[in-house]
Design a protein that fits this description.
alpha+beta, 3-stranded antiparallel beta sheet, 4 helices
Amino acid sequence: MNRKKQKGCGCPTFSPLVKESANVLKIKWQRLVSEGGTCPRCGSTEKELDMAVSTLKQSLAPLRIEVILEKEELSVAEFKKDPLQSNRIWINNRLLEDWISGEVGKSPCCDVCGPSECRTVEVEGQVYEVISANLIIRAGLAAASRLIATNKHESCSRET
């Protein structure tokens, strides 16, 4: 009997796990911007976000996963309607806290935010007012692993 050897995912022929077209890890962050500035909490999160994106780009480059960062501004009026929209991060259209089993909370912030309580994220019992690079990287890697698994499944589906 002449059988093809199966490799990798069990497909008759092994396809690379990574495809060019679907390898984007998109990170979107929105925060309050008032008179060209933001609050210290969002300002610190921005620095952490930039560090995390740099790390993710380096880590995911060998897998040919492109990391794209989009920063969006919330107006004061939008912020006043719903303060928890500020300092919010999505990774591949899913909230950061969903990737890392976190919970959204709120706490008083600063003069820029006025009397509104601003967004916090709680993970494993620790409350984060500033979203740390470590949390962003954790969420980004979880999203990347899902992206790779999806790509692997799609290439198997096409070949069988």
